[in-house]
Write a structure and sequence with these properties.
The complex is a heterodimer of chains A (about 260) and B (about 270). By secondary structure, chain A is mainly alpha-helical. Helices cover about 70% and strands about 0% of the residues of chain A. The radius of gyration of chain A is 19 Å and the shape is globular. The mean pLDDT of chain A is about 90. With about 270 residues, chain B is mainly α. Chain B is globular. The model of chain B has no long low-confidence stretch (mean pLDDT about 90). Classes of the chains: A mainly alpha (about 260), B mainly alpha (about 270). At the A-B interface, helix 2 and helix 9 of A face helix 3 and helix 9 of B.
Chain lengths: ~260, ~270
Amino acid sequence: MSTVGKYLGLFLGYLYINAKGLLEYKVSSLIALFGSLLNSAIWLVFWWVFFKRFPNISEWQFVHLFTIWAVLNVALALVSVFYNVYNISELINEGKLEYYLLKPRNALFHLLIARMRLVDLVEATIWLISFIILKPELPAVILFLVMSVISAGIIHGFLLIFGSLGFFLKSADGIGTELYNALITFSTYPNWIFRGAAKWIIFTVIPAGFISYVPVQVIYNRAYLWILGSLGFGIVLNVIGCVVFSRGLKYFETGNTFVLRAD
Amino acid sequence: MLKSMDKYLAAAALSAKNYLGYASEVIFRSGFLVVILFVFVNLWTVTYSRSGAEIIAGFDLRQMLWYLVFTESIVISRPRVHLKVEEDIRTGTVSYTLVRPYNYLLFQLSVSLGERMVRFISTLLVGYAVMAVMVGPYFPGLSILPFLMVTVVLAMLADLIGMITIGFFAFWVEDVSPFFLVYSRLQMLLGGMIVPITLFPPFLRKLSEWLPFRFMVYAPAKLFVNCDISQALSLMAGQIFICVLLFLIGMSIYRMGVKRLDVNGG
C-alpha cells in the first residue's frame, strides 16, 4: 500500500471510531450542538438589534454579520476533525505524546486525527443551509465553502503554532488559550470597528481579519485576490506550525509520566 | 430570625476568606475580559461617532462603556453553583445535609455568594483598570455607593438562587447543563449583559421587562453609571421581590425533589 493509502486508511479508521463515539453519546452531542447554536443565535439577535437601530452605520448589514458567523462556525467545525490541535500543549506536558511517537506513522498527523468532534459537522451543515437560504446563489455558496476551508486552515495553523510552543514553554497552553479566545472574539466583529494598531493586529498576530473581513470581501465584492492572500497566509501558518512541532520534537525529553493510550 | 441567619453569614464570610487566596489568580486570568472590553470600546466608539448621536438608549459613550464593564464583571464572577448542587444530588451527598440544622438552599447561597463577592471585586478591578486606561477613570458619586453595594448583592442573590434552582433539576435529570445554558444565554441578552435593554425594539424590551434577568445585570449596572438614588429604591424593592419569588420557587422544587430522593448504599 502506498504511503498516501496508509495515511488515508488511518484517517478513515479514526473517522469510523469517532463516528461510533458520536452515536454512543447522542444526548451529550445533541446538548453540545444545541448549546453552540443557542450561543450563536443570541449573538445574532444582538447584531440584528444593532443593525435595526443603526442601519447606515457602515456598508455592512446584518447579512454580512451572519456570513462571518457562518464562515467561522463552518471553519471551526472543520478544525474539529483535527480536534487534538486544541490539546497539543496538554498532550506534550502530560506525557500523552509518547504514544504517538512509538507508532510507525507521522506523530503529528496521527495525534491530530486521533480525536474528532464530529457533531460540529452537523452544526456546519446547519450553518451552510442557513447561508444557502440567505443567499441562494451558486457562486456565493462556492465562495462561502472555499473561504470556510481557508479560514479553517488559518485557525488550525494558529493553534498548531501555539500548541507546539508547549515543547519550549510550560505556560504555552495558557497563552495559546488566551490568544485563541481573542482570535475567535475578534473574528465575530466587523473589521471596521477597529482602528490604528488594532487594524494591523487583526491581520498579523491575531489574524481574525482573514476570518471575518476577507470572506465578506470575497463573497460579496468578489475580491478574488484575497483568496490567494488568505490561502497563502494559511499555508504559511501551518508550515511554521509543522516546523515548530518538529523542532520541538528534537528538543523533547520524555518525563516519568507515561500514558499508554491517550486521546 | 436574625440569630438563625448567623450561620449563613458565617458560611458566606468563610467562603469569601477561602476564595481570597485565589483572587490574584482571577486577576491574572482575566485575558478574556480585557479582549472583550477592547472590542466593546472599539464598537461603541465607532457607533457613537458614525451615528452622530450623543445619547444612545439613554447612555452617552462613557456611560455605555462603564455600563459594559459592570455587566461583564457581574456575569463573569458567577461561580458554578448549579454544578455543585447537581453533584450533591447525583452523588447522594444532599441526603447527609437533610439532618443538618440548616436550609440547603440558603447554605449553598451563602457559600456561593462569599465566593462571588471576591470574584466580582477582582474582576471589576481588572475591568476598571482596563477601561480607565482606554477611556479615562470613572468615579460614581459617593452617595450612591451604599445603594450600589446593596443592589449588587441583591442582584447576585437573585442570580445565585436561580442557578441553585436549576441545580435542583438534577433530582429529575442527570445533567442540568442544558437548562443552565438556556438560563445564561437568556440572561446574556435579555438581562442586558451585552447591550442595555433600552436599545431593544419594543417586543424584546417587553419580554425583558417580564423576565427577572434585568434585575440581575441591567439594573445594578445602570445604577452604577446613572447614580440616580430615586431609582435605586424602586430597584431594590423589585430585586427583593424577585429574590423572594425565586427562593419560594426554588424551595418548592427542592421539597418536591427531596420527596423522590432515593439513595443507595452508605
